[in-house]
Design brief:
Oligomer: single chain
CATH architecture of the largest domain: 3-Layer(bba) Sandwich
Structural class: alpha/beta
Number of strands: 51
CATH superfamily of the largest domain: FAD/NAD(P)-binding domain
Shape: elongated
Distance between the termini: 38 Å
């Protein structure tokens, strides 16, 4: 018979059940058992399984064959389908991952729907894991029975055919990414090559030589990089990251985040002139921190693209702390570079009165300075003072701006010549707007002139800074009040002013409202200080009490001393730590002899003949915190006492004199301040703006100046007819850097600040001369160098001035580029192991312990030592130890072998002997040299005299036990061949660190649906059959992202991935898996649990319907969503309940 002849030819067996041959509408199942050579048959009795299968219901024919996956085996299935009219097929063999597709195709060739097929894995799950033959045979029978019971319930599914987009996305610009990109581009297809670093080249760009040929790495790599950069079919997207991948094979939608380089790629010529002007120095990441670079940099001379990039890590804490947004980081660095005029210009872009602020600013910036954590803050205020004084003395009072032509039809009136009013006036004037400032008092300056004592801020300096403002075109008219006692706001508009700014300050003293406040000798601080600063003779007597704990109280007390008072006491109702005055001012006052009585509060002033004689006080205790956050002072009953006094100065606050603006059509707040829109500073009256203390109450000079400048911008918009709120005043597009993180990344030594000099106490209390003096130039420069450059770029913008190509743009924002591709190649590479946790090796503890990648840079001609092997003190090492397997083959770190460490270690040994003539000791576990010419290289090293010591290193120490070990690093290791512990003194230690999955690999894996193993490496679809494919159709992997490998293997795999992508493209269309999930919209409640768990991003939420929807083109039918859904709304085609339960029945019953 034909059947017997066939079986004889194929050396197999057949059993068939004739009772099913004529029942064509019934399930007709063919069962095929594979021997898999002997992989299955050596444990499973194949004939017994065939016999058993033939007895199962619905089985028409049961066969076995040695290799079912072969042509003959597949032909058996095809022929039987046709001859026996089979409508179901079961194959019991290896894993479905290996050959399910093979057998489905066989069914398809015979005209049977491929989804009417079921596979039972009796190799991986039976023969390979079961010791007893009888048990293995029974287990195989159960698996076959389960597959038969399941397959009878299979429904035919129809796969979809989709078009393939011809473009390809490659993630990673190392050697794998470049190789794949070039091969695809050379085939005429467009490639989007995305690299997160500023240049392509990957790790190989850091190497000096490659093993085993010792070819120059740059000589191999650079031409390839240039080819990538110049190829018209490669869209190179460096300094970019893939943010989102959606879609399915042939039709992926990709969002790419392009980080701002702050240098225009189409304009930069790569000349490097910008670097010469940059004052910032930060550790160079490309050189692993072994040398510094500027904030604007190029990773290495051969970088592609040959475009510089500016490193902006965020905003420095000092800059963010300043109420006026003054770029302290920028001017501090310019001072450190000796660029004083440029520093002054940078300061006055944000604030006026720089010399005054250098004396009287509260220096919020210093409180946030990262240096304050390690030795004390940079003296930012003193540096501002230094550079302002230098400018006025050496350049003059001309503003460092080019004044535009006046816009005579857009005049602005400013009321009040304090810091807010003059700041508003100045910043409008330098934009061409004519500004007139009206001041009620006889001289301009406001609180600067009248409220800050001259020992802190001399009046002649205020005059100088006001003259600077006048030279910007600001007109100041004194003795001209505006309000009920002078000009009205209406009058100003009638005179042709188009806008008005109110900066009237807060000059009215608050009273205490206690008995005796009207006695002679009772003064109020603001009025008192104004009288003194105006030159009026003020007599206080010998005993002076100052009430309050703020800066005005401190100023009043110190002024009282200078006016001749012999006993000055400050009484304050809370504790010292809650005094709002600046700590340094409190200390200075105490040094001058001012006494402070805390937890004390006046309740009455007693006098005789209308003049003060004593102050009655009550002791206080602190209760719960009040609205200010400070603990509320509570009088202690029965604790009253009296203090003799000739004068009392009340420094309990001040407020704006808003009464002068009565009937001006302005809304006034309950506290007397003017209501303004907090963003635009516009008042309730159109065209009228306000700022400073008049709107927020008593504040600081720098806050008032900041508000004045802010108002100038919104007045400009008002004058130009712009929408005031079309955009914010300032866009802070960068986050403030974390100070602790800065300290981790910067190299520094703990140094003390260069404090500005002070006059001796016994001398300074005799007059109103300045107490604090200006630091000298040498100290200023050295103090500026203490800055840690927290933010990287300080935005001094010196690079802009030097760039002739106008390629610098400090306001670049990140962009999102959306592209469509048909396939994705992931080549994200690796990172090297950080040996810091392995303290036994002394990394970061001993200066001469390096990692292998650090040594690569030392050995490189473009590295920190220009290729000369030198220790940090400049000496040539005489003995060098190289320790293998650091972070590899270790139960405590990574158990796997990193493959390349042995060979690059031997490369180092050769180069050290060649360049330095040093004696080299290689400490190894096993030497693994499996590549072409690798073993020969190993033999060469032995011949050259390298010492190979087999055994793990226990520690690296500097504790000497003999004279020859003094001043050396001692490597303590077991020598397994000699059977002893050895102590080897050396000058330098190199740690051969292993490879790890790259940072961010998990994010990419989730986006494109790639699985990762326990170590984070990407998992290929099959190690043998599909080494560059993944579980996500259309997504391929190449290079070290799949696991450690050397350069030749990386290039080979990249070519393979490129071939796979091209094969997909050339087909033009592809068949998409039909066994996918389906969500019943009638049952789904939109909880999105399925969406969260889907590893292939195949589920979307439809907000319009409130349900989740499966993208069938992306879905892999894994079933996680069905298992997760609490409402049982998800069904997986090909895995419905009937199919699953039937399969379980076959195994369990």
């Amino acid at each position: 018979m034909k059947e017997k002849a066939k079986e004889k030819e194929k050396n197999g067996s057949i059993l068939y059940n004739s009772s099913f041959i004529l029942k064509s509408r019934e399930p007709r199942v063919g069962v095929y058992i594979c021997h898999c050579g002997i992989n299955i048959s050596y444990k499973v009795n194949i004939q017994e399984v065939v016999d058993f299968a033939s007895t199962l219901e619905h089985v028409v024919v049961a066969r076995d064959y040695k290799f079912m996956c072969s042509n003959i085996g597949q032909d058996l299935i095809i022929d039987d389908i046709k001859e026996y009219n089979l409508n179901r097929v079961v194959v019991a063999s290896c894993s479905p991952r290996m050959h399910e597709k093979t057998f489905r195709n066989a069914c398809k060739k015979a005209g049977l729907n491929p989804y009417l097929f079921q596979m039972a894995s009796i190799r991986e799950l039976v023969s390979w894991v079961t010791e007893d033959e009888g048990e293995a045979t029974q287990k195989a029978k159960d698996f076959v029975k389960a597959a038969v019971l399941r397959v009878v319930h299979h429904e035919p599914l129809e796969p979809r055919i989709v078009d393939i987009h011809p473009d390809v996305l490659i993630v990673g610009g190392g050697i794998a990414g470049m190789q794949a990109a070039l091969e695809i581009a050379d085939a005429g297809r467009t490639v989007y090559l995305v690299e997160r670093e500023p240049t392509i080249g990957g790790h190989m760009a850091k190497f000096d030589k490659t093993f085993p040929t010792l070819d120059c790495s740059a000589c191999i790599l650079t031409p390839k990089m240039v080819s990538v950069g110049q190829h018209e079919k490669i869209k190179l997207l460096t300094y970019s990251e893939v943010e989102e991948v959606s879609g399915y094979i042939g039709n992926f939608d990709v969002k790419i985040r392009r980080k701002p380089r702050y240098v225009l790629e189409d304009k930069c010529t790569g000349c490097g002139e910008c670097v010469k002007g940059c004052p910032v120095l930060v550790p160079n990441d490309f050189e692993y921190g072994m040398m510094d670079r500027t904030a604007i940099y190029r990773s290495f001379p051969q970088a592609v693209p040959n475009v510089f990039v500016i490193d902006k890590e965020g905003f420095s804490p000092c800059r963010n702390a300043c109420p006026a947004g003054l770029n302290a980081h920028g001017y501090v660095k310019l001072i450190s570079a000796g660029k004083y005029e440029e520093a002054f210009k940078l300061i006055t872009e944000r604030v006026i009165f720089p010399a005054s602020l250098g004396r009287a600013c509260p220096a919020f910036c210093e409180a946030e300075c990262t240096r304050s954590l390690v030795g004390g803050p940079v003296q930012i205020r003193a540096l501002k003072r230094f550079v302002a004084d230098w400018y006025y003395d050496n350049v003059g009072l001309e503003p460092p701006v080019e004044l535009p032509e006046k816009k005579e039809d857009k005049r602005v009136a400013v009321v009040g010549s304090g810091p807010a009013g003059l700041a508003c006036a100045y910043y409008l004037a330098i934009q061409g707007y004519p500004v007139t400032v009206y001041e009620a008092l006889e001289k301009p300056g406001g609180m600067l002139r009248y409220a800050i004592p001259e020992y802190r801020l001399p009046n002649d300096l205020v005059d100088k800074e006001i003259e600077f403002i006048k030279k910007a075109g600001v007109e100041i008219v004194c003795n001209t009040p505006v309000g009920k006692d002078g000009k009205r706001v209406d009058d100003l508009f009638k005179e042709g002013y188009k806008a008005v700014f109110l900066g009237i300050g807060a000059h009215k003293d608050r009273t205490m409202g206690i008995p005796g406040e009207d006695l002679k000798g009772v003064h109020h601080s603001i009025t008192f200080l104004r009288r003194v600063n105006s030159g009026e003779k003020v007599s206080l007597g010998d005993r002076v009490i100052v009430v309050g704990g703020g800066n005005s109280a401190i100023d009043a007390a110190r002024v009282a001393l200078r006016l001749g008072a012999k006993d000055v006491t400050i009484v304050y109702r809370r504790s010292r730590v809650e005094m709002p005055a600046f700590p340094e001012e409190i200390e200075a006052a105490e040094a001058e002899g001012v006494k402070i009585r805390i937890l004390t509060n006046p309740v009455a002033f007693h006098g005789q003949d209308g003049r003060l004689k004593e102050v009655e006080c009550v002791r206080m205790e602190l209760g719960e915190p009040d609205e200010s956050g400070r603990r509320r002072p509570i009088p202690v009953e029965g604790s009253n006492f009296k203090i003799p006094a000739d004068a009392v100065i009340l420094a309990v606050g001040q407020y704006p004199d808003s009464e002068v603006l009565a009937d001006e059509g302005l809304e006034i707040n309950r506290d007397g301040t003017i209501w303004v829109d907090p963003e635009t500073l516009a008042t309730s009256r159109e065209g009228v703006f306000a700022g400073g203390d008049a709107t927020k109450g008593p504040s600081t000079i720098v806050e008032a100046i900041g508000l004045g400048r802010q108002a100038s911008e919104y007045i400009r918009r008002f004058l130009e007819g712009e929408d005031l709120k079309a955009r914010p005043y300032e866009e802070h597009w960068l986050e403030t850097v974390d100070r602790e993180e800065v300290l981790k990344k910067r190299r520094y030594t703990v140094t003390q600040p260069h404090e500005p000099p002070h006059r001796p106490v016994d001398e300074r209390v005799k007059d109103f001369g300045e107490v604090e003096l200006t630091m000298d130039e040498e100290a200023a420069v050295e103090e500026g160098k203490r800055c840690l450059d927290c933010a990287g770029c300080c935005e001094c913008r010196q690079c802009e001035l030097l760039c002739e190509a106008n390629a610098i743009n400090h306001h670049m924002k990140e962009e999102i580029l959306e592209v469509k591709v048909g396939s994705v190649i992931v080549a994200t590479g690796f990172k090297t192991f950080d040996p810091s946790p392995l303290v036994q090796y002394g990394y970061r503890r001993y200066p001469e312990v390096y990692t292998s990648v650090e040594f690569e840079r030392i050995n490189n001609a473009a590295g920190p030592t220009e290729g000369q092997i030198r220790m940090k003190d400049g000496r040539v090492p005489e003995r060098v130890a190289i320790i293998h397997c650091v972070g590899s083959r270790d139960e405590n770190t990574n158990r796997y072998c990193s493959r390349v460490c042995c060979m690059y270690s031997m490369k180092f040994a050769h180069l050290i002997r060649e360049k330095a003539g040093a004696e080299v000791f290689e400490f190894y576990i096993d030497i693994r040299s499996p590549g072409k010419m690798y073993e020969e290289f190993y033999n060469r090293l032995q011949e050259e005299g390298t010492h190979f010591i087999r055994g793990k290193v226990a520690e690296v120490t500097d504790v000497a036990q003999s004279p020859e070990e003094e001043g050396k690093l001692i490597v303590v290791a077991e020598d397994t061949l000699a059977g002893k512990v050895r102590r080897v003194p050396v000058d330098m230690v190199i740690l051969s660190v292993g490879l790890q999955a790259a940072d961010g690999a998990d994010k990419i894996a989730h986006m494109v649906g790639i699985s990762q193993d326990q170590d984070g490496w990407f998992i290929e679809l099959h190690p043998k059959l599909a080494p560059v494919s993944t579980a996500s159709d259309g997504v391929f992997i190449a290079g070290c992202c799949q696991g450690p490998k050397d350069i030749p293997d990386t290039v080979s795999q990249a070519s393979g991935a490129a071939a796979e992508a091209l094969s997909l493209i050339m087909r033009g269309k592809v068949e998409v898996e039909a066994a996918t999930s389906y969500i019943n919209p009638e049952v789904c409640v939109g909880c999105q649990q399925c969406k969260k768990i889907c590893m292939y991003s195949a589920i979307d939420y439809d907000p319009a319907r409130g349900v989740c929807v499966v993208n069938e083109a992306v879905c892999k039918g894994c079933g996680l969503c069905a298992a997760t859904c609490p409402n049982k709304a998800v069904t997986v085609k090909h895995f419905n309940n009937q199919e699953i339960f039937s399969e379980l029945e076959g195994v369990l019953l």
